[in-house]
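Example 9 (inverse folding). The structure is encoded as follows.
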């Protein structure tokens, strides 16, 4: 990898396929440079970890209910004894509503993507087709240099 990279080929590949599978050096650092290039090109990025996401469609695109840990305190009465349900806004669609007019779109940069199931990866492949302003960059593993390929090709190989 060159010391100074423009990231244009990465941005072109992301715009063409909509979802990329990334292989990044394990010592880190290089992904930050590519995220800066994305922001300079007009995209907004959200960093997420794949651990604990749950239902991707609900978490990213719909209002959904969560129950925080009850820590020994349970509700008594008409409701379930496991605690109150709190409704939280969807991460991706809320950010899309708040994007400035001159923005190209939103990039979901998801770390630790190797723990996702095949069905969840298929959803991430189809997400840019459902909402064209969303792009997905999914970190799938380690490599000696920053490498990427369309996410659909990584699914075929798995």
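The amino acid assigned to each position is listed next.
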């Amino acid at each position: 990898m060159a010391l100074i990279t423009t990231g244009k080929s990465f941005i072109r590949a992301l715009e063409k396929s909509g979802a990329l599978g990334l292989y990044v050096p394990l010592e880190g650092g290089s992904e930050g440079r590519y995220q800066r290039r994305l922001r300079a090109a007009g995209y907004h990025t959200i960093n997420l970890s794949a651990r604990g996401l749950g239902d991707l469609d609900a978490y990213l695109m719909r209002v959904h209910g969560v129950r925080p840990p009850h820590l020994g305190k349970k509700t008594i009465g008409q409701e379930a004894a496991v605690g109150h349900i709190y409704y939280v806004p969807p991460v991706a669609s809320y950010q899309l509503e708040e994007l400035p007019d001159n923005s190209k779109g939103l990039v979901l940069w998801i770390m630790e993507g190797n723990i996702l199931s095949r069905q969840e990866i298929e959803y991430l492949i189809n997400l840019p087709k459902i909402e064209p302003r969303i792009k997905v960059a999914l970190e799938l593993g380690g490599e000696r240099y920053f490498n990427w390929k369309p996410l659909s090709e990584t699914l075929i190989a798995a």
